[in-house]
Amino acid sequence: MALLGKQLWRIQTRPDLLMSRIMKARYFLGKSIWEAQQRGKDSWCWKSLLSAKGLLEEGMRIRVGDGATIKIWEDRWLPASEDGRIRSQRKPGSNIQREFEETDRIHIARIPLSLGKEQDRVYWAKTNSGAYTVQSGYKQAKEMKKGNGYCKEVLESSSHGRHKSQCWNLLWKMNMKNKLKHFIWKCLQGIVPTNAVIRGKCDKGDPICRCCGEQAETLEHMFFTCSLAKAIWKVAPLSWDGLEVFTNSFWHWWEELRGAMGRESGRDHIVLTVHILWQIWKARNDKLFNNISRDPMAVVNKAACKAGWGIVARDRNGMLVGAWACPATNCAEAQVEEALAIREAMVVAKRKGWRMVEFESNCKMVVDKINAQEEEISIATILVDIWRLKTEFYKYCFSFTRRSNNSVSHHIAKYAIGLVDVAEWKCDFPAWLLELAQADLEERRL
What we know:
Blueprint: H1 2-13, H2 18-27, H3 44-50, H4 53-59, E1 60-63, H5 96-99, H6 102-109, E2 121-124, H7 134-146, H8 152-158, H9 162-173, H10 178-189, H11 195-202, H12 219-225, H13 227-235, H14 250-258, H15 266-290, H16 296-303, E3 308-314, E4 320-327, H17 334-352, E5 356-361, H18 364-372, H19 380-389, E6 395-400, H20 407-416, E7 423-425, H21 431-445
Parallel strand pairs: 5-6
Antiparallel strand pairs: 1-2, 3-4, 4-7
Helix pairs in contact: 1-7, 4-7, 12-13, 13-16, 15-16, 17-19
């Protein structure tokens, strides 16, 4: 089936091939391959290829370009959705604010759009490159055979009872990263390595919380009663009334939280809560291992996916020429934001008339993709814009630099999170910006 899927993928993505032209003329002339129906007089070869159509439809997505060919309610075009489709029910005669549920609106707003007129394109969602492979097709076929990607036997062996099974089912179906699902699973299993858990397992180490030094660091203390956690929850844009009485047991607390699923935007609020729990855990680790105290508001902004871009322009001697703090309209994944920041920096350089420019970023993956002319699913649209913008410069290069050499743009990006509009500095730079720029310059000379 996976091998047949490979041939069907070639027909879809390479319409110029002789085989593609023959198949189209014979079996689906004047319509798309997905609209083709099997007929009794069709060849066995074509019937075999059509048998892989369901496999491809399950893993294929549409990358939004100009949107001209996308059928909003039928096609799989929403990257953050599990099946690629929107969840909202169709309501004719509405705009996007009323037509779609809040979750869909957020995901739609996070789709990076091209600066030019880029056509819609299909890609395979199961590989980073967006190209179909037999291996990824085989894995997809196995997941489809199991049903929803989860084997019933594994579920029953690891979760006893119908009540727990419902809890796991909710967790696995939530629209968030797998690492967050796994983290909550570990919390519910009681195996997150807090100081108290480590002491109980191997009778070593101090069970007292390093953040507050007041109580044993259990999971419940770390999330709810530690002074660090309290400060974070205080500034969080959430209010879970009635859950305070369940904070002595994370399992019971999660069960009560699960009951909010039926509320308006309840699912989104639960996802935000999970992000906050994850950031509390990371803030705890920063304090424990690096002795870094994170600001509660910064923790919440990170959990709420608020982002900003910091752009710094220097001359050949490393002296500041300009700086821009740009709040991100809709926060996406880190690599998407890094790619958007590079694209924005190129637009700024073009507008200023600079023709010999070196673009630096501390995201090595994005820099490597730009230099290698390789597509990546999540940033493909942005990469196309960057490759087009390169023609506007006489000399250019894209290079990776460590964050320690780029602290100015990092701090400006953090500053941009709290802004409503772009802040620009041309000549009269604030003292803190000059100090950071000087520190960067000295770091580069080492």
